[in-house]
Amino acid sequence: DAGVTQSPTHLIKTRGQQVTLRCSPKSGHDTVSWYQQALGQGPQFIFQYYEEEERQRGNFPDRFSGHQFPNYSSELNVNALLLGDSALYLCASSSRDRGPYGYTFGSGTRLTVV
Amino acid sequence: EDQVTQSPEALRLQEGESSSLNCSYTVSGLRGLFWYRQDPGKGPEFLFTLYSAGEEKEKERLKATLTKKESFLHITAPKPEDSATYLCAVLRGSGGYNKLIFGAGTRLAVHP
C-alpha cells in the first residue's frame, strides 16, 4: 500500500520565480495538509484541503496557494519566491474523520531558492 | 497564543545512557499531544498521542508521559539507531478542521 508521494524530491529555483509542488495522498485518505519546515525548525502549517476546497489556513501570505483534485491529490504553488521560502515542504494526508490523529507524512520536497 | 517549546535543542548520548526529552506547551483545552520521530531528509513518523494528564505510552525503548503543562519522552538504554530529531506537537483547530502546532524539535545523537 503506497504511502504519501511527493514530487519532486528536490528543486532549485531563482528568487522571483514560481514553483508547483505535488502530493498524492495515501490510499483511502481524502484530506491533504501542507507544512513548511525551515532548517532546524519544526513544521509550520500552511493550509488544508478537503473536497477540493481550502478549509483552514496558517499564517502564510497569499503567495502560497493550493489546489486539490477530484482524485484527492494536491498541489502547492508559491509565487514570487523569496530566499526565505527555502525549506522542506511536507504533505500530510489523512481521512476527514480522523484528521491529524491519522496523519501520514510524505518525505517532502526540498526547495532551495537562490 | 499557543506555544510548544522543546528542550534541549540537541542531545548527545552514549549507547545505553538513558535520558529524557522535554516538551512544554501553553494551550487552552489540550485535545492531543503528539510525538514524532524525523530522520534526515524524511517526513515525520508518528510515535505516540497522549490525551490527558497522567497518561503514559510505551514503544520499545521509548516512553511518553504527559502532565498539565509538559510532556516527556524517556529513552531507555538508547542505541545508535535511535538517533533522529524528535518532534512534539499539539492539536489545534476549529469548525471541525484541525492542524498540528509543532515545537522546533530535539536532535538526538547516540554514539556507540
Explain this structure:
The complex is a heterodimer of chains A (114) and B (112). With 114 residues, chain A is mostly beta strands. In chain A, 0% of the residues lie in helices and 50% in strands. Chain A is globular. By secondary structure, chain B is mostly beta strands. Chain B contains no helices and 11 strands. In chain B, a hairpin with a 2-residue loop joins strand 6 and strand 7. Chain B is globular, with a radius of gyration of 14 Å. Chains A and B meet through strand 5 and strand 9 of A and strand 5, strand 9 and strand 10 of B.
- Which radius of gyration of chain A do the C-alpha atoms yield? 13 Å
Distance between the termini of chain B: 41 Å
Tell me the series of helices and strands of chain B, N- to C-terminal. EEEEEEEEEEE
Unreliable residue stretches of chain A: none
How much helicity do the residues of chain B have? Answer: under 10%
- The multimeric state of the shown protein is heterodimer
The count of strands of chain B amounts to 11
Describe the global form of chain A: globular
Uncertain stretches of 5 or more adjacent residues of chain B: none
**Main sheet of chain B, how many strands, which sense, barrel?**
6 strands, mixed
Rg of chain B, Å, rounded: 14 Å
Describe the largest sheet of chain A.
7 strands, mixed
Mean pLDDT of chain B: 95
Structure characteristics:
heterodimer; A: 114 residues; mainly beta; 7-stranded mixed β-sheet; 4-stranded antiparallel β-sheet; globular; B: 112 residues
Quick structural overview:
The complex is a heterodimer of chains A (114) and B (112). Chain A is mainly β and 114 residues long. Chain A contains no helices and 11 strands.
Could you outline the blueprint of secondary structure elements for this entry?
The complex is a heterodimer of chains A (114) and B (112).
Chain A: E1 5-7, E2 10-13, E3 19-24, E4 31-37, E5 44-50, E6 53-57, E7 64-68, E8 74-78, E9 87-94, E10 104-105, E11 109-113
Parallel strand pairs in A: 2-11
Antiparallel strand pairs in A: 1-3, 3-8, 4-5, 4-9, 5-6, 7-8, 9-10, 9-11
Chain B: E1 3-7, E2 10-14, E3 19-26, E4 33-38, E5 45-50, E6 56-59, E7 62-66, E8 70-75, E9 84-94, E10 97-102, E11 106-111
Parallel strand pairs in B: 2-11
Antiparallel strand pairs in B: 1-3, 3-8, 4-5, 4-9, 6-7, 7-8, 9-10, 9-11
